[in-house]
Design a protein that fits this description.
single chain, 74 residues, mainly alpha, 51% helix
Length: 74
């Protein structure tokens, strides 16, 4: 069964495909979406505020992230 036209799944998939094509067309040949990542639909104000707080605080956590060493070599 294929996804229905104009369903949220199809809209997100189309958006991601367009962004990927645009980035690669502008010379970002290594562009790709983060693996092991899932899209999340914001369902209410509490959910939105939790995500906003994560975005604000996340850069402070980068040096303790397991991928920091891989990306920087430190």
């Amino acid at each position: 069964m294929s996804p229905r036209r104009n369903s949220l799944h199809v809209i997100v998939r189309t958006f991601k495909a367009a962004v990927t094509a645009q980035c690669r067309g502008q010379g970002f040949s290594q562009f790709g979406w983060q693996s092991r990542f899932h899209d999340h639909i914001i369902r209410d104000e509490d959910d939105l505020n939790r995500i906003r707080q994560y975005i604000v605080n996340n850069p402070d956590q980068w040096q303790s992230d397991e991928h920091y060493v891989e990306a920087t070599g430190y």
